């Protein structure tokens, strides 16, 4: 009895309570803080550009920090900073960008891609959540991502791609007719292309007819652009990283309102789909779309997150890639004419460009697109939070570090691509492509978390490019290399990518 009395005495309970509190303080506060201090000290031993002690490189990106600034200025400064920090320097594949006291390791080169983006490093950094994609494939934690990816993969099978190609051509044919109004004058097709690619992804993923909900689609394109700029602004500001602190600033109201508006439009599209199916005789979509694939397998919020992710990322990255591709083609007459001859060989006159087998035979078409994606990848790179220590070039990257693999620097490595700034589709000819390491071309990422829709995007780019080149000859109004990129969620051009389109007559070029 005395034993139990002593065991549950006030003094014993105080010791027990102190031990429990000490354990939680150590595990959840002290240990992470000490590890973070270790990371900060460790990466001060890496290469980095001169910086401020407390603000790091923030003032170089955001000169009047913390006061308001035009986001185009931030995106342009960030791009220029990236070129200095992790440019295609063969002798240096690792460098550090400091957002205040937070280090972000930038890596480049095909040798490091395999080690960083392999199967054990699946965790995305916290700022992926800034895009408002919830737990969609881009931003979800590894456990959720693994389950969702398996559920979504059937949407991109070869059989489904044949169905998607037909829907793509249906929209692209209409898009080509719209371009007839733009011939003979300088035009940046930014609005037309983004709206058109959105039409396609909404048709294939949610069975929304191409001609349906036009106003909502146009509004959504504008909102996606706003959300992306806001996400970059938040990521570049150390005061905006923590949610509770971010909500103290007025900008947070603008930020959350834009995200809320995009969710509202997708919900509206979701309701529109239900109404269309209810009014149809079969009560089912013509082909199983993404919504039908996921319904009953994930909860409603999960379905919404994946729909927002696929629609947002699926239309925007393809649109940006297409704009750069047309601009590059418009600067190279010889490439354009060679491409045109190949296209009319497999798709003469008004032959529908939706045959997957014939598209595969258009070898030069793929070379042209791959070279444009090398020079102007849609996204700046791929970021991971390391789940284990990694040794790269005799330097240790620590578990918990945020590491960005730069697609641009990797694509401009002169050891892999001689004269890397030159536009040369022949780099990708069968005899030359075999010499290029698979990890030296990463516009869609690499490894397990590679973009799930990369085949979809390539087919879409081929159909758009083939239809436009078949109908028009193109001339860019600015020379190749004269338009820099803005480091946003996607690599937007700093100036309009204007082209002049001239109709082709009877398979003859009017360049």
TrEMBL record:
Pfam families: p450 (PF00067)
PROSITE patterns named in the record: CYTOCHROME_P450 (PS00086)
Homology family: Belongs to the cytochrome P450 family.
Transmembrane regions: 6-29
PANTHER family, per database record: BIFUNCTIONAL ALBAFLAVENONE MONOOXYGENASE_TERPENE SYNTHASE (PTHR24291:SF50), CYTOCHROME P450 FAMILY 4 (PTHR24291)
Gene3D superfamilies given in the database record: Cytochrome P450 (1.10.630.10)
GO molecular function: heme binding; iron ion binding; monooxygenase activity; oxidoreductase activity, acting on paired donors, with incorporation or reduction of molecular oxygen
The protein's name: Cytochrome P450
Annotated positions binding heme: 451
SUPFAM superfamilies linked: Cytochrome P450
Keywords of this entry: Heme, Iron, Membrane, Metal-binding, Monooxygenase, Oxidoreductase, Transmembrane, Transmembrane helix
Organism, scientific name: Tetranychus urticae (Two-spotted spider mite)
Co-factor(s): heme
